[in-house]
Amino acid sequence: MVELIPESCTARLDPLKIFGREAPLQVDLGCGDGAFLFTLAAQMPEKNFLGIERLAGRVEKACRKAARIDNMRVLHFETAYAVRSLLPERSVETFHLLFPDPWPKRRHHRRRMVTTDFLRTIWAALEENGILRIATDHLDYFTRILRLAGESNLFAFMPPNGENDFPASAFEKKFASSGARIYRLGLRKVSPVM
Ligand SMILES: C[S@@+](CC[C@H](N)C(=O)[O-])C[C@H]1O[C@@H](n2cnc3c(N)ncnc32)[C@H](O)[C@@H]1O
User: Fold this and answer.
1) In a domain? residue 40
2) The pTM is what?
3) 90 in any annotated domain
4) Is residue 118 part of a domain?
5) Residues with CB under 6 A from ligand 1
6) How far apart are the first and last CA of the chain?
7) Does the residue 194 lie in any domain?
8) Would you state the pLDDT for residue 3?
9) Which of 26, 71, 104, 184 has a 20 to 30 Å separation from 45 between CA atoms?
10) How many domains does the chain have?
11) Contacts of 125 (CB under 8 A, 6+ apart)
């Protein structure tokens, strides 16, 4: 079953049961049609990959791709809730947050995914030294993410190398072809400084 139907909306998922094996887990938040995750999963058959997406049509497309490989599953859910309540603590090696909706109008900023609370739940779901990768074409959102991550004390900023090793997501291709600048950030989980 490539589309995950959680047994309960409050119980944590069991990656061993979902994938039938223990392996490092990478999660794509707002995975769209799953193109990025599918390419990554095909490149790394030794790891498990989970896409989370709230739009049914995109989930369906992602599921069609996941059906072609063994190590990709798709969860039709709201990201913030899924990270906070469904993913087990310390279970994720890498989160990918690629081109989250920027909500450019000021009055819509509260709809943005990345908040202090969101970063805390990401931190809890990451393994020791786990990584959150973020890419956006939106400078204002990027600046805000940098500030929130810096204030949180939960992450170390990673040098932006190694990014070329990852496949481009559908939105990355779209923005790159229009000549838009892309801002990237890698955050590594650390113990909070008291
Ligand atoms: C701009 S698209 C980027 C898609 C993909 N990450 C890429 O880079 O090609 C943002 C995606 O996040 C999904 N999304 C936005 N907010 C979400 C949320 N709260 N929970 C789950 N998915 C969400 C949207 O439906 C959309 O598919």
Assistant:
1) yes
2) 0.96
3) yes
4) yes
5) 30-32, 36, 52-55, 58, 78-80, 98-99, 101, 113, 169-172
6) 44
7) no
8) 75
9) 184
10) 1
11) 83, 87, 88, 89, 90, 91, 92, 95
